[in-house]
């Protein structure tokens, strides 16, 4: 029996007891009012039910009876009112306590994510500097190598291994605050089409012969602003997880896109604010997620998979998903039962945009025309790698090991069509500070910033200063050649 039912039972007992007292008092009230009646009753008790007793009656009998009735009724009504509001108050207190516990868990989870993010950011920065040599040099060597060269195969292997390592580091960057560049306008349906037909999924599905992946696209075009690579990673990780949950059984994974407008916030796994969203739903018919695990699935290194099975089991897949969605100001909700699991991803939608369909990969290498570029980086090997790459692209290059050295070169009267600035150059001036001083010398100076790790807030600050692009290390020859070409073509003219 619940506490509420016990309360009502006590009220009923009290009311019954009060009515019983009232009945006795109503029948014998004059006995208690006049002492002579009480003495007479004690000395002359009735011997049978047929005996009659005569009592002295008070002229205030009606008033007394009414007063007793009102008192008993008031007590019962008061008990009911107190019980009702007590029940309401208990519910409010419990709801407030539950909300407090939920918020504490959110804060603790955020602190855990922040700790892992700080660690991941530092590791990503260092590893990207190391990987630049592993990926950039093989890429440059392959450009001038014939298809039948016996060294081409080993170089391709080195390059591919470096790229895979770079992709892992990019995942680590996502865990750190601000590892996402949200500048691209993305056609969501097109991106999912790219994933469904991608080599990654095509190679993965044969391991699960009886699992089908079926996309259901919104009839309307859906656009979002963000990082194409990270949105792609969200879709890929959730889909691979869904496939793995089906194990060896026959099953279905549905990927659905919708454009939704929330006029009021909704409370699901999380609270989603009102607004217009691109909704990506990924639903499977797998074994589901245990209820006690739902609050932990986005935590770093939490996994129920065996390490190495189907390339899964590291425990970072859903953590990366959560971090990427968070960086895009979005939400993720999950519902699960023994019949399957459904993830709903809400990302802020863009309205009234027009973009051209294009592959996310760079396919064209832009050559320079002898323009002068100043490379500013505190890491000697990074200066050497980037200088070699730029000379391969037909640019004239000069280098500086710090922001202060770069400003000294500019003050000497030298002019450069472009500056490529490393963001972090301790203990001296950083990339943004260097550019601020550079435009004081040459107001039309064009620049690009580069880093192995960067906070998105720093990217925004750099763009506000007038810096054209951000380049992520390790350098890709196609990426950097296009961004340099666009900056020199559309940027400010160098005096």
In brief, what are we looking at here?
The chain is an alpha/beta fold. The protein has 13 helices and 14 strands.
Describe this structure as you would to a colleague:
It is a single chain. The protein has 495 residues and is of the alpha/beta class. The chain has 3 domains: 3-104, no CATH class; 184-350, Histidine kinase-like ATPase, C-terminal domain (Heat Shock Protein 90); 372-490, 3-Layer(aba) Sandwich (Rossmann fold), CATH 3.40.50.2300. It contains 13 helices and 14 strands. Strands 1, 2, 3, 4, 7, 8 and 9 form a 7-stranded mixed beta sheet that branches. Helix 1 packs across helix 2, helix 4 (152-175) packs across helix 8 and helix 10 runs parallel beside helix 11. The longest helix has 83 residues, at 61-143. The chain is elongated, with a radius of gyration of 38 Å.
How far apart, in Å, are the first and last alpha carbons? 86 Å
Sheet with the most strands, sense and barrel status: 7 strands, mixed
How many domains? The number is 3
Q: Average the pLDDT over all residues and give the rounded result.
A: 77
Number of helices: 13
Q: Which class of secondary structure composition applies to the elements?
A: alpha/beta
Q: Architecture of the largest domain in CATH?
A: 2-Layer Sandwich
CATH names the topology of the largest domain as Heat Shock Protein 90
Beta-strand percentage range: 15-25%
- The strand count comes to 14
Q: Helix fraction?
A: 40-55%
Low-confidence runs: 28-34, 307-312, 356-363
Oligomer: single chain
* CATH class placement of the largest domain: Alpha Beta
